[in-house]
Write a structure and sequence with these properties.
heterodimer; A: alpha+beta; six-stranded mixed β-sheet; 10% strand; B: mainly alpha; two-stranded antiparallel sheet; 8 helices; 71% helix
Chain lengths: 303, 198
C-alpha cells in the first residue's frame, strides 16, 4: 500500500502529458523522496522541508489512504459480523430446552414407516430422512424440540420415512442402512415404551453422535445397539428386559435390513413424484411439500 | 469534474508499482516507461482493469452468496477437504462466504482496490491449494467452489478444470493488485475529494 501511496503523491503536482522527457523520471522522483522524509517523520523533517511539500497534498494522500483502508476494513468486519449474526438467527433452535417427546410412542407399518404420536391426533406430517444426512440433523436440531412438544401435547403425529440412499457416503459403506435398521428394531421392540424411540431418534442425529458424511469412520452395530439400550433404559426399561435384548439382537443380526430396502423403495417412488428424486430431508403435509425454512411451518400444520 | 480529477489522480508519472528503485537509466527501461505512461495505453488499462475488477467481484459475490445461502452445504464442503481440524471447520465455513462477499463488495465499488485484490488472490491461492491437495490425496470431492461440495463418485471429480479456473481468477487478482487504478473507483473519488479540500 505504501507503494500506491508513493504512486499517487506526485501525480497531483506533475503535469501529465507535457514536459515528459528522458530525464523526467529522475527529476520528478527527487522531491518525492524529500516529501517522504518530511511527511513520515516528525523530528527529522525541518520546517523548510515541510514547506516544500505542496500544502495539504501529501497529507491529503496519507489521509486518503487512512480513510480508504479504514473504510475497507470496516466493510469487511461489518459484512462478516452481520453475516454470522444472520446465520445464527437463522439457526435458532425452536422451543429450546423442551427435550425429546417423552410421552410419545411409535408404531411401524409393513412398509417401515414409523409413526410417532400421543393418542390419536388429527394433524400429521411426514418426514423423509437419512440417518447420515447433515441437513436432517440440522432439521432435528432446529425443530426437534418444537415437534416433540406438539407430539406430546397430542396435536400432531409424525410419520418418519427413513432412507438409506447415503450409504456410500459413510465410512462403512452401509451406515444409513444399519442405523435405519436399528431405529426399526427399536420401533418394533421398544416403541410402545413412552419416549424410548423418540430419544433414540434424536440421539442418532446429535452433534458428535451422527457420523460425518465422507469420513472414514462411523458406528458399528454394537455401538448402535448401545444407543438403543441407552434410549430404552432412559425411558425406564431394564437393560436386560426382554424387549431391550430383542431390539439389541435385531440390530446386531441386521434383521430389519430387508424392511429398510422396502421402505426405501416406497419412499423413493413418493419422493420422485413430489420432488423429482430422492433427497432429504423432505417434509410433507397432506400430500404437499412443506418448506422448513419458514419457521412457522409446524404451527401451520397443527393449526 | 470528477473524471478530470480522476485522470490526474490516477495518472502516475511512471509505473512505480512494478519495480520501485532503479528507473530511467537504460534505454530499454526508458522505452518501457514511455510505453506504460502513454495516455492511450493508460486509458486502455484503466478500462481493462475495470473489467477485471467487476469480473472478480461478480465471481466472488456469486460464490459467496451461494455459500452463505446454504451454510450446511458449505460446512460439508469445507469438511470434505479434511484439511482443517474439526473445531475449525464450523467457524471457517461460517466466515468464508461473508469474507468473499466483503471482498466482492470492495472490488465492486473500488474501495481499497489493491487490498481487496490481494485478499482475492489469497483466497484463490487457498482454493487452489485445497483442490490440488484433494487431488493429490486421491479424495473424490466436489470443490464446492460455487456451493454444493462434498463427496462425489470416484470418476466424477473435475480437479483440473477447477484448478485452471481458479488460476485464471488468481491471475486476474494479481493483475489488479499490481495496478489497482481503474475507472469508477471509490479510491479515486475519495482521493479527488481530498485533493479538492487541500
Amino acid at each position: 500500500m505504501a507503494q500506491e501511496d508513493r504512486n499517487q503523491r506526485p501525480s497531483g503536482k506533475t503535469p501529465v502529458g507535457k514536459g515528459r522527457s528522458g530525464t523526467s523520471p529522475k527529476t520528478s522522483r527527487v522531491p518525492t523522496e524529500a516529501q517522504r522524509t518530511a511527511v513520515g517523520s516528525g523530528p527529522k523533517g525541518s520546517a523548510r522541508q515541510r514547506q516544500s511539500v505542496a500544502p495539504g497534498s501529501s497529507g491529503g494522500n496519507n489521509r486518503t489512504q487512512l480513510i480508504i483502508w479504514g473504510a475497507a476494513i470496516a466493510v469487511i468486519v461489518a459484512v462478516i459480523v452481520v453475516g454470522i449474526v444472520w446465520n445464527i438467527s437463522n439457526n435458532k433452535v425452536e422451543n429450546a430446552g423442551y427435550g425429546t417427546a417423552a410421552k410419545s410412542t411409535v408404531t411401524m407399518d409393513a412398509n417401515g414407516i414409523i409413526t410417532m404420536s400421543v393418542g390419536a391426533p388429527t394433524a400429521s406430517f411426514d418426514v423423509y430422512e437419512d440417518p447420515l444426512c447433515p441437513y436432517c440433523a440440522d432439521f432435528e436440531r432446529k425443530y426437534g424440540q418444537q415437534i416433540a412438544q406438539a407430539v406430546d401435547d397430542g396435536k400432531v403425529a409424525v410419520n418418519y420415512h427413513l432412507l438409506n440412499f447415503l450409504d456410500q457416503g459413510s465410512g462403512s459403506g452401509d451406515y444409513s442402512s444399519r442405523a435405519t435398521g436399528a431405529m426399526m428394531c427399536a420401533a418394533t421392540n421398544i416403541g410402545s415404551t413412552p419416549g424410548a424411540w423418540a430419544s433414540l431418534h434424536s440421539k442418532l442425529y446429535e452433534d458428535g453422535v451422527q457420523p460425518t458424511e465422507n469420513s472414514v469412520s462411523d458406528m458399528t452395530n454394537e455401538q448402535l445397539a448401545q444407543y438403543v439400550t441407552g434410549a430404552a433404559t432412559g425411558a425406564g426399561l431394564a437393560p436386560d428386559a426382554a424387549p431391550v435384548t430383542a431390539a439389541v439382537s435385531c440390530v446386531n443380526s441386521g434383521a430389519m435390513l430387508p424392511t429398510v430396502t422396502t421402505a426405501y423403495n416406497v419412499s423413493a417412488a413418493t419422493l420422485t413424484q413430489l420432488v423429482g428424486g430422492v433427497r432429504s430431508p423432505v417434509i410433507v403435509s397432506n400430500g404437499a411439500l412443506v418448506d422448513p425454512g419458514q419457521t412457522t411451518w409446524l404451527s401451520t400444520i397443527t393449526g | 469534474m470528477v473524471s478530470r480529477y480522476s485522470d490526474q489522480v490516477e495518472s502516475s508519472p511512471r509505473p512505480v508499482t512494478s519495480t520501485p528503485g532503479e528507473h530511467g537509466s537504460t534505454a530499454a527501461q526508458d522505452d518501457q516507461y514511455e510505453g506504460a505512461a502513454s495516455p492511450g495505453r493508460r486509458r486502455l488499462w484503466s478500462w481493462l482493469s475495470l473489467a477485471v475488477r467487476l469480473g472478480l467481484a461478480g465471481v466472488l459475490g456469486w460464490s459467496g452468496a451461494v455459500k452463505a445461502g446454504d451454510p450446511v452445504a458449505t460446512e460439508t464442503a469445507v469438511r470434505a477437504y479434511s484439511l482443517l481440524p474439526d473445531g475449525l471447520v464450523s467457524p471457517a465455513a461460517a466466515a468464508l462466504p461473508w469474507l468473499e462477499i466483503a471482498v466482492a463488495l470492495l472490488l465492486l465499488v473500488g474501495l481499497a482496490t489493491r487490498l481487496a485484490a490481494v485478499l482475492a488472490a489469497v483466497l484463490m491461492v487457498v482454493f487452489i491449494i485445497g483442490v490440488a491437495s484433494a487431488a493429490a490425496r486421491g479424495l473424490s470431492i466436489d470443490c464446492g467452489c460455487f456451493g454444493g461440495g462434498g463427496a462425489v463418485a470416484a470418476g466424477q471429480t473435475r480437479y483440473t478444470e477447477e484448478i485452471v479456473r481458479d488460476v485464471v481468477f488468481l491471475l486476474m487478482a494479481i493483475s489488479l493488485a499490481w495496478r489497482p487504478q481503474s475507472r469508477f473507483t471509490l479510491d479515486g473519488a475519495i482521493g479527488n475529494a481530498q485533493v479538492r479540500q487541500a
